[in-house]
Amino acid sequence: MTSPDELLSRLENIFQCFGNFCQKRGSVSEADTRHQIIDRIMHEVLLWPRENVKCEERSDVGFMDYTLYGTLRPIVVVEAKKAGVSWSLPHGKWLKKHTNYQESCRRKKR
Fold first, then answer.
1. What's the pTM?
2. pLDDT beneath 50: ranges in the chain
């Protein structure tokens, strides 16, 4: 098992490498951000199994950059953006639909 200190050291290294990358490149795209930092944090620090990550999965509002799966269902959705681009949570029908889905999953477990 990897110690918390080792994981923290990995995270610090990733941030340092990304900072150096940004300084050399100037402008950093979403693809750069995903490849240089998000992928590495997911697998090297969080130790999320690669086989439990789906990229560019379709949803009602477009594509999700990453969907992290547990045993049977999605657990986390990660949306990547390049530096300086903001993002907000979906609302309205999409949020209500997915909130209802989560509630139905909770009821099935009882």
1. 0.69
2. 101
